[in-house]
Structure formats: structure tokens, C-alpha cells
Amino acid sequence: MTSLRPLLLLARVLLAAGLFSPQGDCQRAQTGSVRAAEGDEGPDLTWESWWAREKGPLLDLRASLFPAPPTSADLPAGYVALHSSERRARVLPALLEALRDRVPSVRRNAAIALGKTQEAEAFAPLLQVAKSDPDRDARHGALLGLGLLAAPGALSLIKEIVENPKEATAARLYGAAALGFCGGGSASLRSALSEGAGRTATREVRIAAAYALGTSGDPSAAPFLVGALSGREEDDALVRAAMLVALGRLGDASALPIVEAMLEAADPPVRAAACGAFASLRPSGDPGSAARLTKVAEEDSERFARARALLALGALGGDEARATLRRALGGESPLDTNFLVPYAALALALGGSREDEPAILAAWRREHEIRVRGGIALALGLLGGPAGGPALLAEVERVGNPDTFKAAAVAVGLLQTSAAAAPLDAILDRERKPDVVRAAAVGRGLLGDAGVLDSLEDRLRKENSAAMVGALAAALGDLGDARSLDALLETCKRTGLADFARAEVISALGKLADRSPHPSMSRFSRGTLASVTSPTLEELLAIE
Q: Taking the CA of residue 268 as centre, how many other CA atoms within 13 Å lie in the half-sphere pointing to its CB?
């Protein structure tokens, strides 16, 4: 197993945002569905929703297990990358066959997976599905596949969909995301944003267009967004927040005045989004910037904004930022202290200083609420300190609350806690809850025992429960080892397998064959707001 330090650096960069090249092999990340519960104070941004969005770039499983192609034909011990010849000879035909499947969800997953392969042969079949498939979801998957493929020949179709106010909201939203992946079509995205509130483009389309402009890397996007924010051409708070997220990603220093002004905006989502953008545009460790974010973190009336400010402080770094985070972690912040603890822990972990481990461990021992403990467990795993594994081992052994267990299982894998191997094996032998099995399999796989893959693949072949087949396939996709290819391809062809399980296996093949070490959605979803609760947008962000 390789050092996790690059993983931590990657996570910090992702939270700082705006530092990825928009062209070529996309740095992409797995995300999950964002669900925010509305309360008296507005959106309840729990650590679960943040983790669901950001877990892919944080784990970056394949990059941490196998960071570079081998230099010789003799592969080193450990995890094995999929060779390009295997992708073309075995995975591509399987995905093209799945694109013709009778089941729409299989076709949809195959379309997205084909985009990840970056194989030119996928272009014509994807274009055909995007134009004429009878199922809406399959057409949307093909739009995303074309965007991930970054094929110039697809631009005219995608731009036509985005620019057409008579198209369905979902089609325009997926088209906007695809344009962001392509790195082209920013004029179409600006056009959709300029349609404004109350006119032809829905809020969801305008939000998607804003995120996609940030993804596009087009330098002309920043002046457009600054002008729209400065002139208050857009009066919807969530759309304005998405514009700020995009400015943070684009990294144009000329946007700093408007971003800083938005730290004191009237709308909480705008203030929250401004925190992340502000941190990405300021020098690392800058004391003055830390003071501005600390004011939001400790004095803002909305806990959603305070949580975002804490994450921004973690991205900014420096002694002043760490001091604020330590206060929030220790329960010294004046408002919603328990709510803020997991954000403070995660932000400190992303800073990468082992000196913060004792404070995070103290919070783990002190806090008992499930939401809080799960966030702290993840923080300990990401920090990589020597004491985190023993502290989390008891949680893994007792399999208490499933959500806390899932966080702890992944964390002990990241921490290389060898003593966790036996309890994780026992859980995999007896457990029947698919989400628990998936987390246990990922944690066990991260421990690096080569025999584990054989065991997981053998179980996948023998498993009769469709839900368990889906969970095991998803875990093998997460781990991204080429030696899983045979088992996944065999499972694809298994007769009598439930449709949803076959769709999950196809998705796992896509993760295995992805040319980027990061799964598919980071450039679109990084920095998205949990207060965006459109079912269509949630569906988009859930794609792996």
C-alpha cells in the first residue's frame, strides 16, 4: 500500500476548488445523493450529505492503492491497474452490448460507463442513444457519456438541448453538465443563465448551468459571473450561490471583490457558497482571510453557513484557521456546537497535521450522537495518525449503528489497521445488509491483503441475492483492481439476475475502466450546496 499523503493533499485541493485542468482525462469524483432536511434554521447540512458528495475525491481508492502504471511487465504486489488493451478488448464490447440492453437502467449506466472509457468507438452509439432512445433516463445517461467522452462532434446536439427553452428541465440540466465536462459550450451555458428567474429556464437549469461554467475552465466565464452577481441580474439565492461556487472553481482573482462582499449577503446559501470561493481565491494560510471566515464560522445566524465556513478554513489552512477549528471541535463555538463538531474534525483532517489527532480523538470519545461520530471517524481515517485505528476498532467490532460502522470501516482501511481484518472478514461472512457489506468490503480491500479480492470475487459469483450482488459489485468497482474484471464480466452475463443488479455491475465496470483515477462527477459536483433539493439535481449528483 502506498502513502496516503497524496490523498490528503488531493482532498484539500478539491475543497479549495478550481485547481483542476478542464481538458483531457478529467479529474472526477464519486458523489452521492444530496438530501437536506428543512428545519427552522433552514437546510440541515449533515456530515452524511457532505460525505456523500465528497467521499470519492477523499478516498480516491485507485490512486491511493495503485498511483501510477507499472514500469515493467511484472506488476508489483498490491492492486493492479486495468491495461488499455483489456479496456478495449473486453470492457468496451461488454459496455456496447449493454447499451443495447432491453432494460433502460442498464442502458443508462452503460452510456455513462462508455463515456468514462474515453474510447472513440463509443461516440456513434452514444450519439444514437442520446437522440433516439425511447427511455428518458437512457437519453440523459448518453448525454453525460458524450460529455465525459469530450467528443467535439456531440457539441451541437448538447448545445441545442441546453439552449432550447421547450426542452424538459431534466434534459437541459443533464445537457448543461455534459457541456461542463466537454469544456465547450460555455456560450450556451451563459445563455441559459441569462434567461433569469421567472422566465424560461427553471431554477434547476440555471443552477446546473452555473456549476457547469465553473467546470468548463473557460476564462470568459468568470467576468460573466462577476457581472451577473454585481448587477444582481439573478435574484434567486440558490442560483447566486451556484455562481459563487463556479467562481471559486475558476480561480480568477478578479472575482475576489464580489466574492468577499457576498460573505455578508442577506441570503444564507449565498454566504455559505462565498466561504468556499473566498478560501480558494486567497493565499494559503493568510491570517486576514482566516479572520473573515472565522467571523462567519462563529457569528453567522445560520449553521449551514457556519459549517461551510469551517470547511473553507480547513482548505485555507494556517495557524489562525486551525485555532478556530480547534475551538469548534472542542465545543467552544457559541452556536450549535454539536452540529459543527464533525465539520471541524473533517476540516482539520484535510489540513493534514498529525498534531490535531489528539483533539479529534477527544471529540470521538466525548460525542455520542451518530451523525457526529460518523464524521469524526472519517476525519481520523483521512488524517492517518497512529492512534485513529485502535480508537475506531471497537466500533468496527461491535457493528453498532450502520452509518457509524460504515464510516469506521472505511477509516480503518485508510489507516491500515491490520487488527480490523478479522472483524471485517467476520462481517462479510455473516452480514446481509448491502450497504454494510459494501463498506466492509471497501475497508477490507484497503487493508491490502491480495487474498481479499479472491474472496470477494468468489462471493460475487456465488451470491444469489440481487441486492448483495449489487453491493459486492459496487465495492469491487470502488477498489478498481483489474483482477476483478473476470468476475464482473461473468456476473454481467448471469441469467436470471435482477435488472437493478445488472445495472450496478455495469456501473462497476465503468469505474474499473475509467481512464481517470477519479470517478465521474467531481468537476461538476464539487462544492455543490446541500440546500439544492431538486430531485433531478440529486439524481445527477448521485452518479458514480
A: 20
